[in-house]
Each structure stands twice: as structure tokens, then as C-alpha cells.
Design brief:
This protein is of the alpha+beta class. The chain contains 6 helices and 10 strands, in the order αααααβββββββββαβ. Pfam families: TSP3_bac (PF18884), YkuD (PF03734).
Amino acid sequence: MKQFFIIITLIIFLPIVANASGLPDTDGDGISDYDEINIYHTNADNPDTDNDGYNDWTELNSGYSPYAAGNAKLEINDADGDGLTDKMELNFHTNPVNPDTDGDGFSDGDEINNGYDPAKSGKAKLEKKIFIDTKNQLLGYNLGEVRLGLYPISTGKRGMETPAGQYKVLEKNLRRWSSKAKLWMPYWLMFDARGFGIHELPEWNDGTKEGANHLGIPVSHGCVRLGVGPAEKLYNWAEAGTKVFVN
Ligand SMILES: [Ca+2]
Ligand SMILES: [Ca+2]
Ligand SMILES: [Ca+2]
Ligand SMILES: [Ca+2]
């Protein structure tokens, strides 16, 4: 009988250590077996997957990659070389150590760059959305639920506010002339037929360009101005039909 109790005690207390949430955590690194296997794709039997002396929990919580020894940062490291950083893989719920999570022949990075869902095989697409925050003078853009970028902008000044509402990209034009304002609007993405759009800092006919010092301050006539670099990036990413939310 005594032996029986010892065996039961061993079965209960030896095999699995529970983490803070009460779920089994075999290697005792603070991340449950379930999360290691299904979310982080780390080794559930080794608290330090990349054997660099820092356990997986510590690395993930301080922005370091648990998939590469040393000082590799999550937001820079690309453990599987698929063009998507470890951090973006975790955001998109893809596998950071498998370049083709859904096994459909297209890498996770290629799928994201082309708007496809890297977690679903085939042609499932993720929705593209642009968010314009006039209060904080910021533009963010998302693929599905994942934020891809956030940039300072300049929206309409008092009396000429950028109108709030839900829109979509109606027209793309590399360089549009505004006959009303007498200026060029590079990387033009029109979202409202009345003439409201997103574009790079405007240029006058004599070649002078609006300074970036106005970004973060509402000074436009209603359009949404983006800086040099972000405007081109957003232009190349967005397509006709991409949803635009202004508030
Ligand atoms: Ca664990
Ligand atoms: Ca480690
Ligand atoms: Ca990757
Ligand atoms: Ca794929």
C-alpha cells in the first residue's frame, strides 16, 4: 500500500511542471507545451531552444529571437529565410522555422507581400486596410489584423478637414496635378470622388517641395500628405478597392 502511494505521488509530481497559467510546461521555461508547439514553434522539451543560455520565455519577452543564438532580435531575424521576420511570423501566426507554413508552395514572405493568407493554403486573401487618424496625425495600414506600418501625416487644416468616413481606393496615379491648388501630388491614391486622396508631400511647378516639417500638423486642404518614402511604399502596396478609414 505504501509503495502504491509513492508511485501515485511520482506520477502526479514528476512528469510535467505547470506554468503560471496552469497548463503543462514540460521544460519549465514559463511557456506551456501547447503554446510552444502551436504558437511559438519552440522546443517544448528544451527551455532554451537555440542553446544560447537564455530561455525561450526570457527571449520572447525581451524582443530576442529564441530561434537564433546570440543577440538576434525578433524584429530583424528571419530564422527560416522566407522574407518575413520572426516578429511578423508571430504576428501573422505563421511558423518562424518553416518558410511555407501552409505547405502550398508559396513562401510566407511571398504570400504576405502579395496579400495572401500564409496560414491558409490556396488563394485565400487577407484584407488590406488603411487607417487615417486625424487626431494623432498618423496613418497605419494593415494586412488582415496585422499592422504593417505607421507613419506621420498631415491632414486638412481647420475649416478644410479631411472628411471622416469609410472609403476605398478609387484611383491610383503616380503623379497627379491639382489644377485647384496648382501643385503636383506624387503617389496619388484617391479615396473620395470629391478629390480627397493620400499623396506624398506636394511639389510646385518650379520644383520646390513641401517640407517634411509639416508632417504631424494638419496643414493640407483636405488631402492626406505622407513623407518621402512611406508614400511610395503605400502606393505600391495599396490597390483599387483597398479600404480607407478616416476618423
Ligand atoms: Ca515550456
Ligand atoms: Ca535561447
Ligand atoms: Ca521568416
Ligand atoms: Ca504558403
